[in-house]
Amino acid sequence: MGHRAPFLLLLLLAFCKGRIVRVPKSPLIRVEGTETVIPCHVSDYDGPSEQNFDWEFSQGTDFVRLVSTWDSTFTSQQYQERVNNGEIMLRRSSNDAVELLIRSIQPIDQGEYKCITPSTDATVQGNYDATVQVKVIADGLTVSGSKARSSTSRKLSEGDSFELRCVASTTSSEHTHLQVTWELKNGPAWQEILSLTHQGTFQPSPEYKERYLSGDVRLDTVANDTYRLSVSQALPVDQGIYRCLVSEWVKGADSSWQKIQEKNVEIASVVIQQTALDVLTASNISVTERDSLDLTCNITTDRSGIFQAAVTWYFTESPDDTLSDARVLLRVNHDSVISSSTLISLSHVDRNSYHLLVRDVGVEDSGYYFCQAAIWVPKRNGSWHTVVVKTSSPVSVAVAALEPDYQVFLNASKTPKFSDDPAELECRIMNTQNTEENTRFTVSWYYRMRLRSDDVVTDELLATMDADWTLQVGDRNRQRIENGEIIFSKRAVDTFSLRIQWTSEADKGDYYCVVSAWSRHRNNSWVKSKHVTSAPVRIFWATQDYTLTVEAVKLKSFFVAGHTFEMTCKVSSQNIKTPRYSVLIIAEKTPTGQSNPNGVTRIISLNQDSVVRLEDWTDQARVDGVVLEKVQENEFRYRMYQTQISDAGLYRCMVTAWSPGGGGMWREAVNGLSNPIQIDFQTSGPVFNVSVHSDNPTVYQGELADLLCIVTIEGVALEPDDMSFDVSWFAIRSFALNRDPVLLASLDRKGLVTQAKRNWSSDVSLERISPMEFRLRVHGCQDQDFGNHYCSVTPWVRSAKGVWQREPEITSKPIFISVKMDVLNALKYPLLIGIGLATIIGLLSCLIGYCSSRWCCKKEVQETKRERRRLMSMEMD
């Protein structure tokens, strides 16, 4: 029962909620003769949204009807005239709120006012009226201007200071506060300046906040009832009519401040006379470079009394530039302090004239000059402030440059006769006039390709010099210039040169130079004043094709395995200047013995600097078995010691001719290939064959796969100790032979086994089971082990001299190994697990059923009692 009490209380409050009528808290204090507004608001009601209101008034006795929103006959007779005249009226602010308005409240209006709302609710709930007490006090507020300042019109100059005073006091019987606000009218509406609020705080308007914080606008209390507005440094916007606005405030019953009345009085009319200022300069001027520029700024003003002028000269390159974009030349402030400059001076000729002198003008001084003047007046505290600023019209100044006069000639001091010859061009400056010590010359080099057609070719910049002779190179020959193949230099004051150390076909064409004259300005900067272009000079030479002939000669016509093979290569060339040759020995072997897919093996090379290098020679037992040497400048000899049967093939000399290039580098000219020299051994030795065999090429996963590599010999019989084999096993993981073979394992003739890396669980082993049989075993076969398998054998035969000879490599035909999945073994364990789980689940189900029927679901059955009667004997019957 205890926990239901809060719930019932909440339910009771929900049902008891009803209409609420609100009026301000009592008492309302109002001043006699002022307009009084008493609001009334209703909420939480039923019925239409627009509610009606009735107002009644009482002075301690019965309530008298004043006015109603819905009944025009509601008003009592004693108030009918005031209601008809509009002195008392209702003003609806919303559907649920009205305001009782009394135009000029009088002491007889002091009393209680009741706001009543007729019921539109389904049930009577809440309050339907509210009462507020209104207290009317006498008007004790007086506002006037200061008697000491009786003048209502003042004429001031811009920048002057002035004060205005306002006297305000109250004799109210209540505890009230005054708020004083100074306002200005220089347009259609009054603008607030500064207020002393009823809470004792100063509140400037946004327009005067900055001037208030700087102290130019202040509000002070001189006495208990005098309020002074002080304005320093008057501006044109301060002109207008000033008034003092005083409002009286009282703290209401709800502790909030309420304004009960407001009065104002116009204090004075202030006229601000702006200071007239005219700034004049000369008209457009033209001067010659190195002369002096003389400009005068004349100012006139109607200002009287104490003042000072400040003048600033500005310079811009365009007449449309703003003052912030202009450059300050010189200035003189109101204390007559002049900023100094070496070449520019500013002098104060008289009170109204300021003289600007620019010495030794240059072309960079061309532009627009103007001066800005400001009038400064003193403040009462001794500081100075600006009252007016004016800027003159810009003066256009044109400085005519002293253009130097000169000619440029270009000639070729060295011309190439063929490629790789040097070429040199000289660009000379001649017949110079009007050049001074502040003039320097730079050069730019250009190249133009000559075409037989009429196509337009763009000139390409090779290099250019800045005013400080810094070289800027173009993109076309940047690398050659950095390598020193193209050199730019200045041999004399009037001579520039371009040298190409080693010319090429791409250097053919027209060349010309452009010489620029630079003049130094006062700020030590250099400005280009003129440029002259030379006539083009053509660089050309007759082109002949390079020719290169290579002849290979076999020194011994017949030899057998184990002997030394020797051949020479003789080279002859034409149209190549001081050539050097690099030689490469290549061999074209049979497909079984090739080391390169295209059938060509690179054996040994010798470059143009006679440096020998082994290329694709991989026989570690014969690292020193090949030699290439330079016999003469154009003859080279190749030797191969202890030749073997596997060395059979066609041998050639591949020769490259090189000519000297730039920076000590060599440039490739042309390539040549010699005639082939064949190595063909005359032998009647044994012939080896190889085959692959497997008893069971189809295996199941996890089983062992055996493969045999069998080597047979035909012809001459050999002892087992006189022969050995290198055996390698490969696999192609596809049904067709269209993939690259994968090495499985290898066994060299010394018995060392090498296995390739595998990425699955199976493993391989390779062993020699007889002198000519090699067995590969794949342990634990997986799906990845299927495919074509073959072996590659390299026989080695020992000669009668005890030297081992390598025979050509032989490869067996592939055999396909299939790997199948053992279905029974694959399903055995899942099947056994499934049967076991099914058996366990069945037994568990039976056990649960038995227990449920035995103990949980058993019902007691009441047997019907039957009458037991004994059978009577037949005798008794």
UniProtKB/TrEMBL annotation:
It comes from the Eukaryota. It is found in: Membrane. SUPFAM superfamilies: Immunoglobulin. InterPro entries: Ig-like_dom, Ig-like_dom_sf, Ig-like_fold, Ig_sub, Ig_V-set, IgSF_V-set/TM_domain. Residues 1-18 form the signal peptide. The chain crosses the membrane at residues 829-850. GO terms for cellular component: membrane. Residues 6-115, 118-266, 275-373, 404-533, 686-811 form the Ig-like domain. This is Prostaglandin F2 receptor inhibitor. It comes from Pelusios castaneus (West African mud turtle).
